[in-house]
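Sample intake sheet
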Amino acid sequence: MTKKQYLIKIKKLLGTAFVALSSLGAAEPVIDVYVSTGDNHFLGSSLPIDSSASIEAAFDLLKNVNHARRVYWRGLEEACWVSTMHARPESCRTYSFWQWLQTLYAEVRPDELAVKAAHMRDMEIWGVGSLWDWGPLAETAGFGDVTGLESKLKLAHPEWAPVDKHGARRQGGPIELAYPEARKALVDLTVSETLKAGYDGICFLTYVENFSLRFQDEFGYSDPIVKDFKAQHKIDIRTEPFKRGASREDWLRLRGSYVTAFLRELKAELDGHKIKLGMVVNSNDPRQPQSWNVPELVLTAGSHHMDVDTWVRDGLVDELLIYGNNSPQSQYKTLDDLLFLARGTKTSVSVMTSDPFRTSWKPYQERGMPAVLTVSEDWHHLFRGFVPEQTVAALQSQDMYQRMRALQQCGNSPLSPALSPDESALVRCAASSNLIERRLALQALGKLKTADIKPLLAGLNDAENGVRCVAALALAERKDPVACQALLQAVERHGNHMLRECVLIALIRLTPLPVAELGDAALHSKSDNVREIAMRSLMLHTKPALLPVFREGLKDMARFPRFAAAEALGNIAGNSEVIKLLIDTLNHEDHAVANRAAVSLGRLAALKRPETGTLRPQMLAALIVAFKKHGDAKLPDSEWGWRSIGNAILDFGDEGAAVLRQIRDQREDMRLAELAWRVVDLTQRPNAFSIVSPEQNEEAMKRRPDN
C-alpha cells in the first residue's frame, strides 16, 4: 500500500467515525448549520433557497445529511434591509441584486418558508441579523463607483451615523446606538421582522461590509457620547486627549454600554414572545466587534468594548457563537474563556466552523458544545455531513443521499477519493426529482470533459432557478462556445440576477470567445438583460476591434448596458479614439454613465501608456471641468459623483493631486474647495481600505478649507 493510499484509507475511516460511534450507542455531536442567505441569493453555486421546492430540499439535506439541530438563517438581515433600505439605481450591479431580493420577498417569502420547513423537521431556526451593517453614505467608496444601499433610518436621521471628532466624516454602516431613539427604532424593526418570520431565536453579526474606516478609532464622537463622557470623566473627547481616569479604555466601555443597553431593551421585548437572543463574537477577542471577511483584520464597526461579561451575568444573551475566519488557536482560546465565563449560567457557547468533525473539537463536543457548520455550497454540506464516502456503485443506490455523496465525490472531492463515473449514471441523476441531486449531477458532468454537453444545455431550462444557475456554471467548466446561444436564451427567458451572474461566468470562459455572436447580442437583442450580459462578457476581453460595439452601447436604452460599455472602454489601453470617446462621454445625459467614463479615464491615465501620452493634458482638463460642475449642489449625483471624478483625477499621480489642492485652496467656491479636500486629503478608494494614522488624519484636518 502506498503512502497516498494509506492516507486515503485513514481519512475514510475518520470520515465515518461519527456514524460508527452512533451505531454503537455513542453520543452524536450536536451540529447546527449557518446559512448566509444573502450570499445564497447572490451566488448560484450556494445551497439553493430561492423557491419553495429549493427550501424544502435544502432543509431535507440539513436534516438528513448534517443532522442539524438548529439552523442559523441570515434572512433577518435581508428582511430588515428589504423593509428599510434605500437603493441607488446608479450602482447597477447592486441595484440588480436589490430588484431580485424585492422579487423574492414579495413572491417567495423565503424566511417564512424556511421557518415552516425547519419546524416540520423538528429543527429550531434562528434569524441572523446585523447589529451595524446599515449601508454607507453614497460618497463612501465601496464595491464600484457608488455605494448601492443605505438605510432610510440613517437618511432620515443623518446624525445617527457615527461621526469623527471633527464632525467632518460619518461612518459607513453603523447606526449609533448612543441615541435612545435609534435603539428603539432598531428594536422595533428587529422584533417586527422576527415575529413576521416566526423565528425561535435571533442573533447578530457585528462587522460591517464597507471600507469607510480609515483608522480604528476614527468614529465614536456623536453628541450623546461626548456628553456622557464629559459627565463621567470631565473632559471633552473631541478637543482634549485621553488621560489616566479618562482613558481610551473608558471611551470604549462607554461605547460598549450602548450596545449592552440595546441588547437589554431588545431582550425585554423578545422575552415576552419567548424568543432567544444570541451574539456572534470575535474569535481573536470576544470583547471587540468582529473583523470583516477580508484579509485585513480591521474592526469595521469601529472601536467598542463588547461587554460579554455583563451580557452573561445579567442573562442578556442565551447564546454566544464564536466566529471563525481566524486561526484555530484563537478559536480554542476564546472557547475556553467563554465556557469558563458562562459556567453555571443559562448562556450556551458554540463555535462556527467549516469542519465540525475536526478531532480537536471532540473534547468540547463530548461536553455538549454545539458546532455550527458554516459552509456555502451543496457539496460542502455533503463533504462535512454524516453520510460516509461512497463507491461509484452508489450512483445506482436507492438511497438518494448515498447518490448525492457519490455525486459530490465525482464533482468535488477534496481529501477523499474522486470517483470515475459512467456518464449515463450522471445523466440519470441529472433527471432526479430532487433539485439538489440534479445540481450535483450537472456539476459532475461539467467536470467530465468528455461527456455530452446536451444535459447541461437542457439544465438551463430546468423548472428551478438553482438548477439553471448550476447548469450555467457547469458550462463554464466546459468552455465550449457552442453554449453561447443557449446561455443567452436562458437569460432572455429567466433573466433574474442570480442566473445572469452565473451566465456571465460561463460566457467569459468560453474558448475561443464568440465575439461576433456576443457583439450582435449586445447591440441588437430585444432583451435588456441579454444586452447587459453580452456587453459585460465583452468587457473582460476588450480589443480595439470592439470599439464600435462599445460606442453604440453607450446609446443603449437601458442603463446597465450603457454603464458596462463605459467600463469596457477603460480596458482598451493605448487607443486615442477610446480616450476621445470617453472624454465626450463625460457629458453623457446619464450621470451614472458619465461618472463611469471618468473612472475609465482615470484607469487609462494610471497606465501611462506612451501611445496616449499627448492626450493626458486633454484628459485631465476634461475631468477638472467635470469635477468643477459639482460646485452645484443640485446635481442628481451631488452626493457621490465628485468622488468618482476626483479619484480619476488622483489617478494622474502628483499632477492630479496638485490640481485638487489648488481647487481646495481657492476661496471663490467653498463647496468645491470642501469636495477637493475630501478627495485629496481624506482619500477613499473603492474596493480597499484607505488606511491612515491618527496623526496623518489630524494633519489633513488642518488643511480643511474652513479652518
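Comment: The two ends are 77 Å apart (CA to CA). The beta strands are 31-35, 68-73, 85-87, 124-130, 149-151, 201-205, 276-281, 319-322, 348-353, 371-374.
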